Amino acid sequence: MIAEPPRKTFGPAHHLSGKVAPLYHEDWWMLDAGRFVPFGLTLVQAYCYLTEFADRAISDEKLALLQASLDNLRHRGLKAVLRFAYERDMGLKEGPTVDWILRHMEQLEPLSRRHVDVIYVLQTGFIGAWGEWHSAARIGFHNDGFLAGPSDGGTWPEPPHFGGPGNPEFYSMTRESAFVPVDGELFWSDQGFDGKAARGKGVDGPECGGEDAPASLQQLQPRAQLLGAGRPTLLD
Fold first, then answer.
1. How far apart are CA 34 and CA 148, in angstroms?
2. pTM over 0.85
3. What is the radius of gyration, based on Cα positions, of the chain?
4. Other CB atoms closer than 10 Å to residue 88's CB: what's the count?
5. Which residues contact 110 (CB under 8 A, 6 or more apart)?
6. Where is 233: in which H helix or E strand?
7. Using DSSP, how many helices (H) and how many strands (E) does the chain show?
8. Range of the domain at 87
9. 100: part of which helix (H) or strand (E)?
10. In this predicted model, what pLDDT tens digit does every residue of 131-190 receive, in sequence order?
11. 155 with 192: CB under 8 angstroms?
């Protein structure tokens, strides 16, 4: 997350425990990003939460924190897949009104334009839990664990095909992907799959915790083969 003040809202990843300050700081995830520099990765998923501004203008302090965060990305040679959101979980019954969201967009536009060189893509965001449009209106598909492995992090729990050719739900999504937006999150492993069964409830399945090795290219081959078959796929 970016543009967050130094407060105890959650803990760092387990491998950073004892190595970082107890209060939240961007260095937590910057250290994570640094782990993958040897692999040539320069993109980071950056969430900017506007939770406390659901019914008022974004404060100058918050905008200054966002400015500092984007400057930090530039300094480190990183680009952001940037998303703005209000809801940190699915428990919020009422979010901001359309009027407030539009006013916030107007506030954020000048800053976003100044940092267009470090914003690789601006995701739709703003609506639903985590800005995913989760538990709210949605057009298109969100894949919770895109390319993570056989089940895509539990997105495709149906055996024996899981997230590959042969799964009717997978074929349905790939057909629709030619006409509607398709988005997703990148896991470093198939955290919803134990090698035999997958946890989840289809395309809208929940994210799952855990940690394992990165998915292999062999796991992605069936989907790559679809490209040669002339069918619209998630990779189009």
1. 20
2. no
3. 19
4. 16
5. none
6. none
7. 5, 5
8. 14-122
9. helix 98-114
10. 877 777 767 777 777 777 777 877 787 888 887 888 888 888 888 888 877 777 776 666
11. yes
Residue 224 gets which letter from DSSP? H
* Residue written as token pair 């074929």: 171
Name the burial class of residue 130, with classes exposed (0-12), middle (13-18) and buried (19+) by CB atoms within 10 angstroms of its CB.
buried
Is 229 within a domain? yes
Sign of the four-CA dihedral 105, 110, 115, 121: positive
DSSP 29: H
Would you say residue 7 lies in a domain?
no
Closest CA to 85 of 56, 52, 113, 63: 52
157 closest CA partner among 222, 204, 216, 217: 204
Distances (CA, A) of 22 to 14, 25, 27, 54, 152: 13, 9, 12, 28, 33
Residues 207 and 116 in one domain: no
Parallel, antiparallel or unpaired: strands 119-122 and 141-143: unpaired
User: What total of structural domains would you count in the chain?
Assistant: 2
pLDDT tens-digit series, residues 212-235: 333 433 444 444 444 333 333 333
The 10 Å Cβ neighbour count of residue 123 is 18
26 near 5, Cβ under 8 Å? no
Distance, CA of 163 to CA of 184 (rounded, Å): 13
Whether residue 183 is contained in a domain is answered as yes
Please indicate, yes or no, if residue 131 is contained in any of the structural domains: no
